[in-house]
Design a protein that fits this description.
The complex is a heterodimer.
Chain A (H helix, E strand, L loop, with lengths): L6 H17 L8 H20 L6 E2 L14 E2 L3 H24 L6 H20 L3 H19 L5 H32 L4 H11 L3 H17 L9 H7 L2 H28 L3 H23 L4 H27 L6 H36 L10 H4 L1 H15 L5 H15 L3 H25 L6 H4 L6 H19 L1 H17 L12
Antiparallel strand pairs in A: 1-2
Helix pairs in contact in A: 1-2, 1-4, 2-3, 2-4, 3-4, 3-10, 3-13, 3-19, 3-20, 4-5, 4-10, 5-6, 5-10, 6-7, 6-8, 6-9, 7-10, 8-10, 9-10, 9-12, 10-12, 10-13, 11-12, 11-17, 12-13, 12-16, 12-17, 13-15, 13-16, 13-19, 13-20, 15-17, 15-19, 16-17, 16-19
Chain B lengths: L1 H21 L3 H22 L16 H7 L3 H32 L13
Helix pairs in contact in B: 1-2, 2-4
Classes of the chains: A mainly alpha, B mainly alpha.
Chain lengths: 510, 118
């Protein structure tokens, strides 16, 4: 079982190059889409199969963990990695299915598929990386692939958005590399478990704080936290819909939120300072994201700002958990609840945000507009898309019994039990604001008299509807199946973060 | 010598950051990003430096322990190689985008390439 784990990275990367090769051979050109979907499907199957398995520490090339030197490149496969791998591969599979029909308007679709596979493989690499520099390299691969994908349509808006995204993303990456450099200079190690051990021995100091600041700054830019969010409202709407779904649903999570959680909890260890930074970032993102989203009349731009707000929820939950863990008498139950809420919201947001972005792609293709004022009455003309869009909007607004309600409720309960009453009130207010915002979205998009553009629209192609229906089922099921999810998927992930700096050096983690 | 060289490296980083933030020409922004990347590479190489050290290549008749005691750290050098290649890929993409931007907008002025607002 242990030897299959690196395949989750190698398979998409290898098939990406195979797709490029196939596209230049006339008879195979039409099969590139099928090959890409099969690769991601296999990846997803491996991720699911690993859920139950107990995987020991894997060192590539067999260069084992010598406690004095730690030569090998470690591949992590603990609970948090498995949860992220399942999320990433599931959203990638659904987006690729959607793209099968959506991308017909573009030329060189094989290029899109190759870049998409590179991005998926690299995101898997980020969550599997047990080594700081490996994390950086895969972050860069995923980022470069996403810059090219945002600019895929090559229209003026898309190029401008992609250029700004590229410049800001590169600044973020430079700071991440700076942080890794300073950490290496302080500890002499790159392996995350070894760095955690050395940092615990050295204790806090100006160099460690500089490394933490540089890393959090760079990763917060990748996660689109306020005030580093400037690239997201331009990049996500301009990208083609399946890429918006991937970017908003998993890329900012895998490269931003996951990396911050992994580094703060498992490498640096939760201290009051880091917790305070996370709390401020999370709260600011929540509030400002929601306020800016409320004034938007462009559907995809509204969804992009809403992503900032929801990612703020997750970071806030992680920050409060870090704060609870760093107290003199840490309350593991309360911290565990906050972590569970944050991780559940991460999973849910991947599901309903990608659902909403894919639905907006369907609407854009059929109706021809992204402006809320020009839509209306979609329920009568595009039944499946409208139904899925409604479920997605209800989920993100936090209406029971969908998944968004439960994850937001758990976060609010965790905040209250950690005695952060002000933060709890802010989070509740943002939840109410999100509800109002999405009621407005539903009113303009789904109800009311059909605009003249909508009256001429038909239902989206079957493949796109299939992708939407799959995500809708996930939204409904995740709300109803919390206990099995906690058992198998989220519980082990939460335990990894709860064990803080001890988690990585433990042997086999379930 | 010790602290001055690091101050210099961070100054180069700040110069790159200034160019990205303050310059209006797309090409100058690209050059700024490059300077930023190279400054971080410089810090990375400096971290591995040892005063009066030897290049990490085993000489004829030298033992491993001798090499480890005298050589500069080769790991940051390997990291810098990877980082330079990543910078190369990014440069190619940035320049390609700049060319396409010029075709679409007719200018390299960032203030006029602002059709997206808010």
């Amino acid at each position: 079982m242990a030897s299959i784990v690196p395949l989750m990275v190698g398979l998409p990367l290898g098939v990406a190059f195979a797709v490029v090769a196939m596209a230049h051979a006339k008879p195979l050109k039409r099969l590139t889409g099928l090959v890409a979907v099969l690769a991601v499907l296999l990846n997803f199957a491996i991720a699911l199969a690993l859920l139950g398995a107990d995987v020991p520490r894997i060192f590539l090339g067999g260069w084992g963990p010598d406690p004095a030197r730690t030569l090998g490149i470690e591949v992590l496969c603990d609970g948090l990695t498995k949860m992220m791998a399942v999320t990433i591969n599931a959203v990638a599979l659904v987006s690729l299915l959607f793209a099968g029909a959506y991308m017909r308007r573009f030329t060189k679709v094989w290029l899109f598929q190759a870049l998409f596979l590179l991005m998926t493989g690299a995101m898997n690499g980020v969550v599997l990386a047990g080594d700081l520099f490996n994390l950086f390299v895969f972050l860069e691969i995923a980022a470069i692939a996403s810059y090219a994908l945002v600019a895929f349509g090559c229209e003026s808006e898309e190029l401008e958005a992609a250029f700004r995204y590229l410049v800001l993303g590169t600044i973020g990456s430079a700071f991440i590399l700076l942080g890794v450099t300073v950490l290496y200079s302080v500890t002499g190690q790159l392996n995350m478990a070894a760095v955690a051990g050395k940092l615990a021995a050295i204790g806090p100091g100006p160099a460690v704080l500089l490394a933490a600041a540089a890393l959090i700054g760079g990763l917060a830019l990748k996660a689109a936290m306020v005030p580093f969010h400037a690239w997201l409202p331009d990049a996500h709407p301009s990208a083609p819909a399946p890429i918006s779904a991937m970017l908003s649903g998993v890329l900012i999570k895998a490269s931003g939120v996951y990396a911050i959680a992994r580094l703060i909890f498992n490498v640096f260890g939760p201290t009051p300072q880091y917790a305070a930074i996370l709390i401020v970032l999370g709260a600011a993102s929540m509030v400002i994201g929601m306020l800016m989203a409320m004034g938007q009349w462009d559907l995809k731009r509204l969804l992009a700002y809403s992503s900032i707000s929801q990612a703020g929820y997750i970071i806030l939950a992680f920050g409060v958990a870090a704060e609870v863990l760093s107290r003199a008498t840490p309350d593991r139950a309360v911290a565990g609840l906050c972590l569970f809420g944050g991780l559940f919201h991460l999973l849910n947001h991947a599901a309903f945000k990608s659902l909403l972005f894919l639905a907006s792609g369907s609407i854009e293709q059929q109706v021809g507009t992204r402006q809320l004022k020009e839509m209306g009455g979609l329920t009568r003309r595009m039944k499946v898309t409208a139904f899925c869009c409604r479920i997605g909007a209800l989920s993100i607004a936090g209406v029971p019994p969908f998944n968004g309600f439960f994850s937001k409720l758990i976060i609010l309960l965790g905040l209250a039990m950690a005695q952060q009453y002000v933060l709890c009130a802010i989070a509740a207010a943002v939840a109410v604001g999100t509800l109002l915002m999405y009621v407005r979205v539903q009113r303009y998009v789904l109800e009311g008299p059909p605009g003249d553009r909508v009256a001429r629209a038909g239902e989206a192609p079957a493949l796109m509807c299939l992708a939407l229906v799959v995500l809708t089922i996930v939204c409904i099921a995740a709300g109803l199946a919390i206990v099995p999810l906690r058992e198998h998927l989220l519980g082990p992930a939460r335990d990894v973060l709860l064990n803080a700096t001890n988690a990585l050096s433990m042997g086999a983690m379930p | 010598m010790g602290i001055a060289i690091y101050v210099l490296a961070f100054s180069v980083l700040l110069v790159g950051l200034y160019a990205v933030v303050a310059k209006k020409n797309v090409i100058k922004v690209i050059v700024g990003v490059l300077i930023l990347d190279y400054a971080v590479n410089l810090v990375l190489v400096l971290v591995g430096y040892r005063t009066g050290g030897q290049a990490p290549i085993l000489e004829n008749g030298q033992s491993g322990a001798e090499l480890a005691a005298r050589a500069v750290d080769p790991l940051p050098q390997a990291m810098v190689l990877t980082s330079i290649v990543i910078g190369l890929g990014l440069t190619a993409m940035m320049v390609a985008m700049a060319i396409r931007l010029y075709e679409k907008y007719g200018t390299f002025d960032m203030n006029r390439i602002r059709s997206l607002r808010g």
